Amino acid sequence: MKQPFETMPTVLNAEEIISKAVRDAEREEVELSDRVPAIIKAKKREAARIRAAEKASAGYLESLVKTVPTIDNLHPFYMDVLEVLVGIAEAKAALGRLSRSARIIREAARSSLSRLRRPKNPKDAASARRAFIGRMASIVRGAAADLETVAKLRERMKDLPAADPAVPTVVLAGYPGVGKSTIVRAISSAKPETRVYPFTTQAVIVGHAKIGGMTVQMVDTPGLLDRPIERMNKTELLAITALSKLSSVVAFIVDVSEANAFTIDRQKALYDGVRESFPQIPFLVFFNKADAADQSQIARAESLFGKRKALSALTGDGLGSFISEVEGALKELYPA
Ligand code: GDP
Fold it and tell me: Of all helices (H) and strands (E), which one includes residue 209?
């Protein structure tokens, strides 16, 4: 699937737009016979130049604004990412001002063209055109910062990996070392891919599995859903919100053997924090490393989390019940 920013073309800066407008204007010549009076020729030539410069400036700004996907129609995931990487209010304001600049240039062109209706000599006609070029250039220069904002938006958004909101997605959470990537590897049909999102320090790992006849994305997000929410900065929190828009189900993995150096109690505290940041999303909890845990550890885990499926990603025991529980949750969300 394509992501909405992928096709945005490079954004010209203010000086590039002005030079192009000036060049296009200079190139305009009108073919008229020698018998046509000089003043008529001058009027036609200058009018053609004004129109060419108008098209290269106002026309460019209008088409630029159209190349940006409509922000309000974006999938919530991309909205959150845009908020993190650019700022939605800033992007919308810049686009609004660019459209207004285009309108002002068009108005200036109209009034210059009407001035051209009654010039007394070719010099007057040329000066109406020059006045327009000057006005156009100063409007475009005034839009320089907004052009930079759109250029930044393109730069940051165009290479984001496509995320298909229609594909059911299971996001794994849990402290480092609980076995998330082992589970993704064990269940995926092919080697999981890694994807780089600009707001996470580590690559996101995505595996694909067939579960209950559906192709499901399994996502592991090192550095994001594996530590307490209170210690996160604003960008990380927004990244989590973005992720929550992609998730169908969160599978929270507990290492019941505590071999990852986090006690079951600390894992429960992490669970509570993550649960709170994904209020709308079904949560499944699994006890991994059951092969290495003793009875008292499982009892402690059950007292905190309730009775849950125990599995071992290492030996493969219980992976079948992991899959069937995920399938059950997905079937409720995506009834066939
Ligand atoms: P992640 O950081 O949550 O992705 O954890 P990993 O999948 O990298 O696993 C961390 C370590 O735990 C690795 O050495 C795994 O081999 C080991 N591990 C994962 N699952 C199990 C399990 O069910 N039993 C045991 N004994 N070890 C496991």
Answer: strand 204-211
